[in-house]
Amino acid sequence: MLSLWIHIRAFFTVVVVSCAHPVNWEQCIRVDQWLLPEVKEGYRLWTGEITPYERERNYLNRGVEP
To answer: Rounded mean pLDDT of 26-36?
Structure first.
């Protein structure tokens, strides 16, 4: 539970505070392009459907046969 609180607090301090400034509104307005895909990815990591750096590992091992 503490981990969830840490992530929520970090999100608030980084994203919400940054998006409160008019200069950043252009980048923050399309939440469907930057937030929702990351929430989906986080859920897949949390459920164990994928592992951290799985895509990178597959890319690096693509041409290597064990």
So the answer is: 87
